[in-house]
């Protein structure tokens, strides 16, 4: 399999963490590429018409995108306990948290584009604060339920680790740990997992 990634991408990191946890990372060739919201990467466009990462090319030549689909596909090609519950309330709880953390990441990445790509005279402060508000709303929701996770590390927890890691990577000045002690303690434990440590974004 081939996985188009950028090592700074939290969405690509979700798939990479799951692959490590599932013991199939050695079956995946990672192709590190650069993407931009204002310039099309022609190589990636051949695989994903949305020109977004991650994109997974399977051994049979089929391409999957984006991270929720890729992660669920990877969960079908290993023999370890599954990272997506198969049915019922547990499955929908996991999918809900995945949607929450993906939404937090969408908002954070938009803030990153606004501050790093858009010319400074055109930046919209109120819009940035609106996106930041979504991130902190998500942090509050995670803080309220993280104690119920115990030692679980499924797709919900993978998403949370990627969201918190991205905040440390791109927005350390936001100080997300303040007011979220339970989430902070959980993230410290999660960061010691080999899969999380091995996929840290570049300094």
What does this structure look like?
By secondary structure, the chain is an alpha+beta fold. It folds into 2 domains: about 1-75, Glutaredoxin (3-Layer(aba) Sandwich), CATH 3.40.30; about 90-200, Glutathione S-transferase Yfyf (Class Pi), Chain A, domain 2. Helix content is about 50%, strand content about 5%. The protein has helices at about 10-20, 40-45, 65-75, 90-115, 125-145, 155-170, 180-190, 195-200; strands spanning about 1-5, 30, 55, 65. Strand 1, helix 1 (about 10-20) and strand 2 (about 30) form a beta-alpha-beta unit. Helix 4 runs antiparallel to helix 5 (about 125-145) and helix 4 runs parallel beside helix 6 (about 155-170).
Name the features.
alpha+beta, four-stranded mixed beta sheet, 203 residues, Glutathione S-transferase Yfyf (Class Pi), Chain A, domain 2, Glutaredoxin
């Amino acid at each position: 399999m081939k996985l188009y990634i950028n090592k700074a991408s939290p969405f690509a990191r979700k798939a990479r963490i799951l692959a490590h946890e599932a013991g199939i990372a050695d079956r995946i060739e990672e192709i590190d590429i650069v993407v931009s919201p204002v310039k099309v990467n022609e190589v990636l466009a051949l695989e994903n018409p949305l020109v977004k990462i991650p994109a997974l090319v399977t051994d049979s030549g089929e391409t999957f995108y984006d991270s929720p689909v890729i992660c669920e596909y990877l969960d079908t090609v290993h023999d370890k306990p599954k990272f997506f519950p198969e049915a019922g309330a547990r499955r929908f709880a996991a999918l809900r948290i995945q949607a929450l953390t993906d939404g937090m990441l969408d908002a954070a990445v938009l803030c990153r584009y606004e501050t790093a790509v858009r010319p400074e005279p055109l930046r919209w402060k109120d819009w940035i604060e609106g996106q930041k508000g979504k991130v902190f709303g998500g942090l509050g929701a995670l803080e309220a339920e993280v104690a119920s996770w115990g030692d679980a590390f499924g797709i919900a927890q993978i998403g949370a680790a990627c969201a918190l890691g991205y905040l440390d990577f791109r927005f350390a000045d936001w100080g997300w740990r303040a007011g979220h002690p339970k989430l902070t303690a959980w993230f410290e434990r999660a960061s010691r997992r080999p899969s999380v440590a091995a996929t840290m974004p570049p300094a």
